[in-house]
Amino acid sequence: MTIQRSVARFAGVAGIVAALALISATPASAHVTVTPTVTSAGSYTVLTFSNGHGCEGSPTTKITISVPDGVNAVTPTRQPFYEASKQFEDLEPAVKDAHGNELTERVATVTYAATTALPDGYRDAFQVQLQIPEDMAGETLAFPVVQTCAEGQTAWTEIPSSGQSADDLEHPAPSFVVTASEDGARGGAADRSAEAEEDDTDGGSTVGVVGVVLGALGLLVAGFALVRTRSS
Q: CATH classification of 29-181, choosing from 3.40.630.10, 1.10.3720.10, 2.60.40.2230, 3.40.50.10380?
């Protein structure tokens, strides 16, 4: 009887803890978030922006993503139920892209306008491809998003100040931390590969020399045996 009561009490406490965890997780999951496929500086990545609710119950009609400085070219992914468009701004002075081409303008924002509004309580995702700036390792790359609804809008544009967490903000901008470039790792792998090939070559040469020596010894032994046979 005592064991049954203990189990019942434990189950009740576990249920309360699970409920509290669910309640505390709900606001965070309601944010517009971004998930990159790659975070390393200089790499090309696909960013997925997720939106999981409307504006105070009103369906979402448009998502506008602001592109941070340092990112010049953005390729939006086509999305059913939305019309994707890019808005440009002038670059002064002009800059060179990764292929050496001169750029006089950059993509400032990407907009997904709904042809069929997204009902509140349903989520959708929007993807864009871009190159992470090479000089931003260790920094946070933020993409402020304005969510427009049939009635009202929500600006997910708040940037944490120094020492502040995005969890402390009511409407944080989607963001991620840029990690170190992978070029060093690739170079190290190439060097290790070259060393392995060199070791294989040296090993093959050593085996070849040993084989020649053993072959010569075999011929000497055979000749000696032949001489002894004829002498006898």
A: 2.60.40.2230
